[in-house]
Structure formats: C-alpha cells, structure tokens
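Researcher: Please predict.
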Amino acid sequence: MNWLNLFILGVIASGGFIASTYETIASRKMLPIGKYFSKNGALTIIGGFITMGAIVTSVFVNPWWSIILVFIFAWVVNQLLIMSFKSLAQFVSPILVILGIITLLIYNL
C-alpha cells in the first residue's frame, strides 16, 4: 500500500467534499456563502464527482479497504477546514483539488 497516494487521494477527496457540502454547513453556521457556492447545483455535483473519483481511484492503486480510509480522512479534513477557515474554506477547496491533481500527475499513479 502506498501511503503517499492514499494521502494525496484523501486531499483531493476533501477538496471535493468542501465543494459539495460548504453551502449546507455554512447556512447552518451562519457563514457567508460566495456566489459560486450559493444555490449552484453544478458545483455540488462537480465536488461529488471529484470526491467519488478520488475514492474509486484509491481502489485501483491500494487495497480495496483503502476507500474507507480515504473517505474518513476526507470527511475529517472537510470538517476541520470548514470549522478552521470558515468562509475562506471556499477558496481552499479548489486549491486542494488542483494541487492534488498536479501531485498525482507528477507521481504518476
């Protein structure tokens, strides 16, 4: 099992999690919601696809049970980033996804 790939996939999945869950969490916590995150169903769907893509990719590069680790890691990082960065988490999400994908390309899964 490659722990680096597992970590990178977890980072990508957490960026997708933020994109798909920020609006819901922000409305409950009374945080400001940017124009790309407010009532934008496309961003939620894209975030979900990014998350699921990272989780499914984990099956092909690590043992089957690694999807559980990636999912849990991504969910915990999602919660921590939104609670820590509050409204800035909107900007962290695409950065995590882009850096993660670039890192995956560099390390050639």
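Model: The chain has one domain: 3-98.
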